[in-house]
Structure formats: structure tokens, C-alpha cells
Request: fold
Amino acid sequence: MLGRILHLHRRHVDVAELLLRARAHPAGDHRRRRVLDEAGGATAGEVFDEGAALLRSGDPESVALGAELLEVLVTGHDKGRRFVPVLARLLDGICGPAQHPVVLVAALPLYLAVRDDCAPVLLELLDHPDGGVRRAAAAVVAVRPDVPCDRRTVSLLVRLLDDDPEPTVRTEAAAALARLHQLDERHRPGIEEVLAEYEDDPLPGVRVAALKVLAATAPGQALAALAAELAVADPDWRFVAACADASRWTDPGDLHRELLRLQERGWAEHDVSPARFPPADERAALLTAALTALSEKRRYEYERKVDAC
Reply:
């Protein structure tokens, strides 16, 4: 998740009070995650006890909250990994296709953090009737080493991109295809052909994925298209984040200028409403990271040209 804040220092944290504040936001909301991240300052045992009790409650909303809390424990607490074996056993009875969608979406990150053999479940969830579950599965299927980068996986993602009625599912499917394009050259021609049809898609996330793939075959065209996306009044954060992957962009001068313009105009603070995602501080961090990456790429290119003279 963008800009996760891990509280590694120790201070007294009342986990029960923290959970009350977390319930003020829906499952998956970035504001809820920020509250739960404070559990990094509590004792690992207390976090585990509270989270495990919620997992066993049987109430979907409470189970979802427990899974989110325990994912913080496992991934963000310095003593959390010792609970992995027992959590793996607990989650085997929770993370199945018949489970309530709210629980599946919330528990999937924790399940992936404690199990190394998630491929069958993930591929099955790509066909789940609930859009939120399909989105959650598509978001991680291409970053799991245990998921084969084979014809079946690619075909499932292409079908989601082509036909899924949920915009968030299509966005994650496109992003997954762009990642697979990098990982396995066997499927590159097919993925390039598919995403070439979506370079003008109305969804920013789909266009970003198409641009990343286009950069491998037509870097100049991709560079111009990305600069044009950044030149609009309020560009989507995904286009700013794409600039940080400076190795894709052969001559990033135009991108650097557009990002400086966004910085001068206060793009990160353009909308500071609490529900805005990413929040202002994370948007500012994205912009800074992109500017830094492009500056380093420009300096490298300049030094290489000097050395060649």
C-alpha cells in the first residue's frame, strides 16, 4: 500500500480503543489502515489476541477487521512473524470462495503473507461473482512467485480486462498484465497486442498499464503520451507514479518539466478531503520520488554522453 507508516517505536497502545476508531471507516479504506498501523506500537501478543478473537467471531465485518489488524501484525510488527503458523491454520478455514466477500477481500493480504502456496485460491478468485474479490485477486496475482505465468493466468486477466463490468477489476487486470509483460518474455507479444487496444481507455489505470507496455516497443510514443497525461489540470496519481520507473523513459526531460509544474501548482494538496486517495502526504511522496528518479536518470544520461565524447 502507498506510503505505509510503520510505527516501529514502542509506546502504550490500547488495541481495543484503536479498533473502535478503525470501525469508523469501511474495510479497505486507507484511513482505516492508518489507524490500524498504530498497532505496531502495541505488544504483539495483545494484537494477536484481539485479532484472533475477531477472526473467530463469525460476524463478517468483525472478521474483516481482525484480518486487517493481523496483517499489520505480520507485516509491520517486529515480533509478528512468530504468529504465522497459527494464522495460516486459522485462515485455511476462512479464505475459500464460499466465504463472505467482505471477509475475502480483507483477509486475502493476510493469507498471502502467511502462506506460500496461494496460486490455486487466487486463480479461482479471479472468477468470483463479487467484483471486490476479483479486484483483490487481480491486484496480487502477478506479484506472487507461486502463481505460474502461463497461458491460463494471462487468459484470465485478459478476459477481466475485456469484459469485467467493474472498473477497478479492469484496472487491476491491466496492471497485472503489464507486470507479467516484464516478467516473462514468452507472453510479451500477446500482451502487447491486447494492451495496444486500450491506450485510449477511459480508465487512467488501464491507460497507465498500456503505456508501460508501449514503452518497451515504442518508447518515444509512450513518452509523449505520458507527458500529455501529466499536462492536464489534475492528472491521475498513477501517471505521476509511472514516472518513478525512470528506466522505461529514454529521454525524461519533458516528464521532469511536467512534474515540476505540478509541484509548483501544489498538485499534491489539490484536494485534501479526508476520503481522497492517495492522501496529500502520499501524493507529495509520489511526486518527490518521481522527480528524484527522473533527475538521476537525466544525470546518468548526461554523464554517459560526456564520457562518450
Notes: The first helix runs from residue 15 to 22. The chain has three domains: 1-115, 123-217, 219-309. Residues 1-10 have pLDDT under 50 and may be disordered.
